[in-house]
Amino acid sequence: MTQLPLSPPPLPDSTPESISADLSCIHCGYNLRGLFPDGRCPECGELIQDSRQGHLLRYADVEWLKRLHFGTRLKYWSIGITILLNLMAGALVAFGPPGELFRVIGQIGAALGLWATMCITAQEPRVSLEENPVTLRKVVRGSAWAAFTCGLVGVMDPNASYLITPFIAVLSGLAGIVTFGGELVYYRRFAVRIPDEKLAKSTRNLFWYAITVATLWVVMMGVVAILTTVVAKPPPLPGTAPPPMGGVLMMILAGGTLVLSLMMLIGLLWYVRMLIRYRKAFAEAIENRGV
Length: 291
Description:
The protein is mainly α. Helix content is 65%, strand content 0%. It contains 7 helices and no strands. Helix 2 runs antiparallel to helix 7, helix 3 runs antiparallel to helix 4 and helix 4 runs antiparallel to helix 5. The termini are far apart.
């Protein structure tokens, strides 16, 4: 006869090990270290397993994804609305309304763009709740507010002194460049988390394209300033023809402005097309979360 064992063999330990490293909840940012992976976050009730899936967007917090989706859609709609309103303003100004209408309508579009930037740069819950004093998110938000405020000052005080107006124009331009560049850096990070290598590459290329256009614009303005103050001379008497250099200066300014305007339009269309692709990616991530 076969002898039975005195006691049954021990069952394998199926109890999952607790999380040994810092891990933030994707919904509230709570540190899940020491908890079991098959449980729920004690702070918000989110499944801990969802927070262990990595940093892909399809596992991110739903409310944060919805904000990104809304901000991206608002961003390209704000661009379209601004262009449309400015065309309407141009038609109205031709029939008599004051030129300040351009600035007012432009500020409406700027307000929509500011709102979109706030949504795009919203802090992800899974990131530590304690944020460093200086981060890309804060820099982009601060520059967006600076650009909007400069535009608002121009609308409220169109007759500012000749010393204040150039300063506001320069500050607004720099703030706008920082905001746009920072948003592109943000979007490229999203593309890596989709993941979509082609979209990430396109976003990076657009970033350097925008830097190139901004640099060319600054160089052209510098050349025009030098020619205006050093080379070109005013007509000797009222009513006389301007010197030849004046005509050359105007040709340089007109040609450079036309080329850069076309480059800006190409970049703008590129940006809108890219935003549409990101909006679709955010929508797919939200759908993946079952919402």
